[in-house]
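Hi F.,

I've been meaning to write this up properly since the lab meeting, where we talked about keeping a consistent format for the predictions we share between groups. The idea is simple: the sequence comes first, exactly as it goes in, then the structure tokens exactly as they come out, then a line or two of notes. No screenshots and no reformatting. I'm using this chain as the first example so we have something concrete to point to.
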Amino acid sequence: MGQALIILGVVFVAGAVLLLERRCLGKPAVVQPLVLCLLTGATIGEVEAGLWLGISLQLLSMGQSHYCNWVLAAISAAGGIAVMSVYDIHLAPGATATVAVLCASILVGIGFDLLDRKMNLSRSVSEQKGVDIWKSEQGGEEFTALIHRNIVRGFLFAGIQSVLGVGLVVTAGYLMLGVAAPAHPEVTIIVALVIPLFGVAVTLGSLSGRLFPLYALIGVAVSVGIGGMI
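Output, unedited:
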């Protein structure tokens, strides 16, 4: 119980700080999926899983940066492999549980990004109906109080998002371990190659527009061919 509470507190604080940095700057300027996942993997002795998850998320984020909170996705993936490592569950690149962690982290990023957009929209509408602080005699104090409230609210909300994200990712990994049978080693190698190359295809497709399906098919074909030769 004590260990679980410590993990919960670390995820809450670390995730809140990282997400707050993204919100303050408006984009993931410092927090990058590759750096975060690789550092986490190196710290806990899961370098291969951290590197694979980081590369996959980084490539996908470069092509579709506006449709997902990739910082939260990286926090969820990094936190997921860290929590599972604490309970002596080690992930390998391309394994079914690792793919489940990757997919769950992306879904978490997409879902909470949509929630953020809706909350920001409703918040901006409510603020427009509020009192104009610049015409108030205590405008400076009201403005400072507003900034403090937003920081505290953002910190708490980001911490809750991080905890929920890591929890969902760990649950997905555990379920996949219990349901799916271990994949054949050759299949694992092919999957480990396909997903990063698909990320390359997504990035190229975002730059080329109509050629995205072609690049995606080329990426999958090349990765399958390389996996077959290995």
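Notes:
The mean pLDDT is 77.
The chain has eight helices and no strands.

If this format works for you, I'll send the rest the same way.

G.
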